[in-house]
Design brief:
about 130 residues, mainly beta, 5-stranded antiparallel sheet, 3-stranded antiparallel sheet, 8 strands, about 35% strand, rod-shaped
Length: about 130
Amino acid sequence: HGPGISSPALEIMTQSEVDVPGPPKGVNARSTSSFSILISWEAPAGSGGDIEKYKLYYRRGEFSSDQEVIVSSATQFHLTDLREYTEYSFWVSAFNENGEGAYSEEVPCRTYSDIPADPPQNVTIEPA
């Protein structure tokens, strides 16, 4: 009894270890009109693989339900058809081959007010 003859060497290959992405950085939202907001962000640091897409989440006010938009690998999205002079909150996540990563910080932005639909009515001037 004792050690036997060694088997031939085995070649083993493993897949690379890829985690889900971290949160996108530098999320910025700025109003571009009464009905639209441009949201931009930077790719996550150490994303753990190629970013396949982003998901932009947003909510009108504090209590409405969350909405979402799938964005290709671009790092900005121009959201339109919003309500005038309304505050929205935005946050973003990145996806790689292993799935969705962490959410970015939430960023608020308000659409501009629109011009009045009609001129003022019954305007009077009072002496000072």
